[in-house]
UniProtKB/TrEMBL annotation:
<feature type="transmembrane region" description="Helical">
    <location>
        <begin position="134"/>
        <end position="162"/>
    </location>
</feature>
<keyword id="KW-1003">Cell membrane</keyword>
<feature type="transmembrane region" description="Helical">
    <location>
        <begin position="401"/>
        <end position="427"/>
    </location>
</feature>
<feature type="transmembrane region" description="Helical">
    <location>
        <begin position="356"/>
        <end position="373"/>
    </location>
</feature>
<feature type="transmembrane region" description="Helical">
    <location>
        <begin position="174"/>
        <end position="193"/>
    </location>
</feature>
<keyword id="KW-0997">Cell inner membrane</keyword>
<feature type="domain" description="TRAP C4-dicarboxylate transport system permease DctM subunit">
    <location>
        <begin position="7"/>
        <end position="417"/>
    </location>
</feature>
<feature type="transmembrane region" description="Helical">
    <location>
        <begin position="315"/>
        <end position="344"/>
    </location>
</feature>
<feature type="transmembrane region" description="Helical">
    <location>
        <begin position="6"/>
        <end position="33"/>
    </location>
</feature>
<protein>
    <submittedName>
        <fullName>TRAP transporter, DctM subunit</fullName>
    </submittedName>
</protein>
<keyword id="KW-0472">Membrane</keyword>
<keyword id="KW-0812">Transmembrane</keyword>
<feature type="transmembrane region" description="Helical">
    <location>
        <begin position="54"/>
        <end position="72"/>
    </location>
</feature>
<feature type="transmembrane region" description="Helical">
    <location>
        <begin position="273"/>
        <end position="295"/>
    </location>
</feature>
<dbReference type="GO" id="GO:0005886">
    <property type="term" value="C:plasma membrane"/>
</dbReference>
<dbReference type="InterPro" id="IPR004681">
    <property type="entry name" value="TRAP_DctM"/>
</dbReference>
<dbReference type="InterPro" id="IPR010656">
    <property type="entry name" value="DctM"/>
</dbReference>
Length: 429
């Protein structure tokens, strides 16, 4: 019976109840009817105190920064810069799609936001130039998987709060895996485009002068992630304070440099910020309350013993965990999967000596792959609904990109120095 709330969560989730309400409801069932030894008000206390975390301030600030940048014309500047770098390659618009998602990681930090933006901005032009709709949809969704891995992705913050690790270290750890995922996708795009005859948008590679000119024109957008690294490295601000600086920076750039941010944008920006923040924070709080049940019942310890009974080899264990996460990702939305599974798996990998920052990137890359797979892939549904692409066409075209991302996942999993290089340089080993 101690495991009943886990089944209640899954039952509620698969019947369409939002994950936050499913977690909170299952916890209340446990402490209200199954374990009556604890006063119910202690759970409500936990619900309130979970929201009183300084680290949570990073979420509304970065959500607002991403919203402001979308209205400030940053994405157009980044797309022009991406086109200068990759326009000469076969499948140029698909390459621009991937590179833009990588650059948007420092702007929006949301896979679904990036997928929706590029589906509206790039896919119509790709179709006009002869790209197959299924291919266009697949590369748009696959490239959006890169965006949340590069800071300031919200999943990086959520995992840091769940695992009680530094948000700054999670931010720094995301850069190399995110870039490597993009490179894997670009290689696949190259070979498919050569085979199908998807042409470049430029006759030849841009000259250094042209690249420099476009980089200068886009410098305020490009400088954003550099500023995040530099500011935290020299101790000017913490990751939470960095979010506030990011909002101020975006307002100045959008209103006074690019001059595309208008007073009329204030209302939609505030609405998007409140909606985005409320959803994420409610999930985090509900997950903390649900964690109280799991701790009380000793479930993480049971799961840890069960998995350690299968193998004591760290690398075999990581392979098993990857397989579990990939299968779960096919049936459950990525954020929900991370919130439920991370507290169960962290004791296992900690016992085996796996760095928790490194493990966080393994989980996040994994759940991003889940966003491309049926039946519950969120980026798949976002792109297909916007451009009216049949799901079977999408799945057929997405398979090579899913394979490329799995290769990237395995390299991230088994080469920890790749992930930990920047955090160790910035914060020390």
């Amino acid at each position: 019976m101690g495991f009943a709330p886990l089944f209640i969560v899954l039952l509620l989730y698969f019947t369409g109840i939002p994950i936050a309400y499913a977690l909170f409801g299952a916890t209340m069932v446990y402490f209200g009817f199954m374990n009556t030894g604890s006063p119910a008000y202690l759970i409500l206390q936990k619900f309130i105190t979970s929201a009183q975390s300084f680290s949570l301030l990073a979420i509304p600030f970065f959500v607002m920064a991403g919203s402001i940048m979308n209205y400030a014309g940053i994405s157009n500047k980044l797309m022009a810069f991406a086109d200068v770098l990759t326009g000469h390659m076969p499948g140029a618009l698909a390459q621009v799609n991937v590179l833009l998602s990588m650059l948007m990681g420092g702007v929006s930090g949301s896979a679904n936001a990036d997928a929706a933006m590029e589906a509206k901005m790039l896919v119509p032009e790709m179709e006009r130039r002869g790209y197959d709709r299924g291919f266009s949809a697949a590369i748009t969704a696959a490239s959006s998987a890169v965006t949340p891995v590069i800071p300031p992705g919200i999943n990086l913050i959520i995992y840091a709060l769940i695992a009680n690790v530094s948000v700054g270290k999670m931010f720094m750890a995301g850069y190399i895996p995110g870039i490597f995922m993009a490179l894997c996708l670009m290689v696949v795009v190259h070979f498919i485009s050569k085979k199908r005859g998807y042409m470049p948008t430029r006759d030849k590679i841009a000259s250094p002068l042209e690249m420099g000119k476009q980089a200068l024109d886009s410098i305020w957008a490009i400088f954003f992630p550099i500023g995040i690294i530099g500011g935290m490295r020299i101790g000017i601000f913490t990751p939470s304070e960095c979010g506030a600086i990011a909002v101020l920076y975006c307002i100045v750039v959008g209103a006074f440099i690019y001059r595309e941010l208008k007073p009329a944008h204030i209302a939609p920006i505030l609405q998007e910020t409140v909606e985005g923040t409320a959803g994420v924070v409610l999930i985090i709080v509900a997950a903390n309350v649900f964690g109280q049940y799991m701790t009380w019942q000793g479930i993480p310890g049971m799961i840890s013993k069960a998995l350690l009974g299968v193998t004591s080899n760290k690398y075999a264990m990581l392979l098993i965990i990857n397989a579990i996460l990939l299968v779960v990702g096919m049936f459950m939305e990525g954020g929900a999967a991370m919130i439920i599974l991370a507290p169960l798996l962290i004791p296992v990998v900690r016992t085996m000596g796996v760095d928790l920052v490194h493990f966080g990137l393994i989980i996040i890359v994994n759940i991003m792959i889940g966003g491309l797979t049926p039946p519950f892939g969120s980026m798949m549904f976002t792109v297909c609904s916007i451009i009216d692409c049949p799901i079977p066409d999408f799945v057929k075209e997405a398979l090579p990109f899913i394979a490329a991302l799995i290769v990237a996942l395995l390299i991230v999993t088994y080469f920890p120095p790749l992930t930990l290089l920047i955090p160790n340089l910035v914060f020390g080993a």
